[in-house]
Structures are given as C-alpha cells and as structure tokens.
Amino acid sequence: MAKSSSTSAHAPSAGQKFDVVLIGAGIMSTTLGSMLKELEPDWTIGMFESLDQAGQESSDPWNNAGTGHAALCELNYTPRGADGKVSTAKAQGINEQFTVSKQLYSHWVKAGTLGSPRTFINGLPHISFVWGDKNAEYLQERYEAMKAQPLFSDIVHTEDHAEIAEWAPLLIEGRDPSQRVAASKFDTGTDVDYGSLTRQLATHLDSSGVEVRYGHEVQSVKRGSDGRWDVKVKDKATGERSTASARFVFVGAGGGALGLLQGAGIDEIKGFGGFPVSGKFLRSTDPAVAERHHAKVYGLASVGAPPMSVPHLDTRFVEGRRTLMFGPYAGFSTKFLKSGSFMDLPLSVRPHNLIPMLQVGKDNTDLVTYLIKEVTKSSSAKFDELHNFFPDAGSDAWEMITAGQRVQVMKKDDKGKGVLQFGTELISARDGSIAGLLGASPGASTAPSIMFSLLERCFGAQMDRWRPKLEQMVPSFGRALNDNPALLSEVTAETAKTLQLEP
Length: 503
Hints:
Elements: E1 16-23, H1 27-39, E2 45-49, H2 89-111, E3 121-123, E4 126-131, H3 133-147, E5 156-158, H4 161-167, E6 181-186, E7 190-192, H5 194-207, E8 211-214, E9 216-223, E10 229-235, E11 241-251, H6 257-264, E12 273-284, H7 287-290, E13 296-298, E14 312-318, E15 321-331, H8 344-348, H9 351-363, H10 365-376, H11 379-389, E16 399-402, E17 406-412, E18 418-421, E19 424-428, E20 434-439, H12 447-458, H13 460-473, H14 485-498
Parallel strand pairs: 1-2, 1-11, 2-8, 4-13, 11-20
Antiparallel strand pairs: 3-7, 4-6, 5-6, 9-10, 10-11, 12-15, 12-16, 12-17, 13-14, 14-15, 17-18, 19-20
Helix pairs in contact: 1-5, 1-12, 2-14
C-alpha cells in the first residue's frame, strides 16, 4: 500500500522544481508516472493527491462501474449504424486499447513494478444478456458481426435456457421458461481492481524516487514568468501553502481537472463544460449468492438512459474477496468528485462554455427526465430491476452503496453547437507543457492507450528515442491487432500466461 497521509507533514519546499508534476493519484496519473519513470529514470517527478492515499475516487473498485472494459459484453459499444447493421467499429477500438493495457500490465508484472496478477486482475467470462424478440434478434446480428472480426472470433452465442444456466445460473433460475432470452459469451474477459492496481503503481513511484504527497490539495496551476508552471499546493493537515514548479504538468484529478485546466488559462479548454452524474449500486457479499455467479453480465440500457447506465450484474474481486454488484442506478449531484463540493458545477460555468452548456441542456431533456425518474424511484422499484437479471434475488442479501461521480464532457462540435459526449477527452496545450483528462467511460480500462496518446502529443521530440522501449513495454505498440491475427494470437497467449488469465 502507498504511503499514508502522515507524509503530508512534509510539504514541498517553496520554489521546489520538478521536471513533471502529476495532479491526482488515480489510475491515470500513476500510469503516466510509471511510464515516464521507466522512459526517463533521471527526471524529477512530484505527485500531489488531496486524499490520504491513491486511487480513492474513480479508480476505487466500488466507485468504478466498469472494471475491465474490453467491449466484449457492453452493448452500447455495438450500436446499429445508419444502414441498420450492427457496427463493431467502436468495440474494436476499445478492445484494441484494453489489449494494450494487458500488455503493459504483463510487462510491469515481469519487471516487478506490479505484484502478483491475482491482486489486481482476474479472468472472468463476459456475457451479454437480453430478453424479448427484438432484443434477441439484435444480439444474434451482433454475434454474427463480431464473430467476423479476429478480436472477437472466440464469441459463442445461444438462446437455450439450459445452456445459459450453465454459464450463469442466477440468470435463469425462477425465469419463465417460455420467455425468449439470448446470450453471447467470451471466456477471455477479466475483472480488474483498479484501486489495487493504482496503489501498487503509486507505491512503485514512491520507491523509485518520485515525491508522492497525500493530503495535499492543488489549488491552482499558473504559468510562471520563467515559462514553467507554478503549482500552488495546500497541506490539508497543517494549512501550510507552498508552490512547486514544473516543465510539464498532468492534471489527472478526475472531476477536479476541469476547474484546474480552466484556471490554467489555456485556450484549448475554452468551450468545455462538465455534466456530473452520480450513481448507486446494489452489492452482495453473501457467499451463498456471490459464489453462484462467475461472470460480468451486461444488458441493454433503458430508453433515454445514458450509456454509463447500462445495467450489469458483475462478479467483483476486491482485495481478494469475491462479491456481486448490480446497477448502476443513476442519480444527480452538482459535485464533480465524490469528495468534492456542491459548488463544483456552478463554479465551472464560464462565459466561454455557458452557451454550449445551455444547448446541451435544451437538447437532452430526455436525459434530464430519466435522471429525475431515477432519483425519485423507490427502493423497492430499484430492487425490482435486479429481478430482470436475477429473478430469484432476495433483498436480504443486498445493500445499496454510492458509487463515484462521473463528469460527462460538454463541448462544441464541429459546427460550434454544444453537445454532450460520453467518453474521455484528452486536453493539451499547444506547446505540450500541460495536459489533462476529462470524461468517464471507458476511462481506467484504456488508461495506457490514453497516456501513450499524451506522450505523442506532449513529448513528440522524445518519441523516436523512446519507441524501442515502448515496443518492449507493449509489443503491439502502433499496430492494430485486428489487422494482424498472428500478432494478436501471440500477444493474447503471452499476456494470458503472465497475468494468469488462462480460462
């Protein structure tokens, strides 16, 4: 585990200089820091986190809805296109990125950067499950479209109740045998505990000479007269304020990134806003229930629901313990972080993003209506939704928990109109001296690919020199595995062996 908040007594000295400052100690910052420390061991790096340890906001397993997003079972990544056919393009892109993640984790396990794979990743079947004629027909078409792609060639599909019961018995027990159901399955899925992964990376950074400070809140980032970035930091335990400066700053502060980037005054953040969505989950730690379900099962989102609200019944491995989670149940809060302030949303409104935000509100009344219905829904009505997946579920085995905040990106499209974007957005200054990440899903699962994009944008002069090392870290670096089945097979076998993911 990373250093406790007791280290917060040692604030950075006034005017302390770093090559790189990382704001936030979530999966994004720790991934980037671990990459840079391997590429440039002599660079000085400081990492500041306002909470008392790493990975406590969106990276925490109980705050992170999608652990191991590989687009294997998430139906929102395979929509029907304008031609009426199921498109696999988005699923291919996300799966390629998650395969990059597994290669990097495999490299870090071999290097000793990460510990035993079972402490952060476990093999887990991924299943898509629907009911009703229209949905079953869609899932059949999706199966055929995915089967044709090398990335997804091991998909299997059935509408047989008995076969689905073998895959995931809780889905079938108590269900009307005449109801038409359909399921597609991959045995190569995973469950990832990003809290554990993040904390292991933070511990590695700490032991590698990175100055890791918990309980230190970054209050502003401003360009100094010398061209470097001045990062003002407050020690939350003592109230002491200090300033560190850096050649490069990464704002990996989750929902807190928008305000810091706005305060930095870079042109590239103009027009961006944030729409916060909170969530709740039902969780079962009852072994009699949890031990009978071994899969991540995704269904279809309700009409008007955002993609992040796709219902799913998941096995989760958290700190070595097997549990179940069902949800999410969407809610609304003006906070941008679970530990944030109710003033986060109003304080994010600026003259340059007011019109795009108003346009988003006008064009997404169905989303607002959906959120109002979700917030006002009774506990019994919420529990009834679990019965769609698990007909025999009993309320005594489940508890409602509050998940992390998700801040969806609001921005101008190519025509200058405000739109709501469900995804992640990497923002970087033109000179590459500062960058930050906005948005949510698929987020953590694609962190390595996002950080590789950041390296290309912000450290272009070093990329040719770094490339051999990057290809050592990720053998498929720069190549599309779906277009190279032989390399795909080689990479899949190697990562499965190293990460102990053999079915």
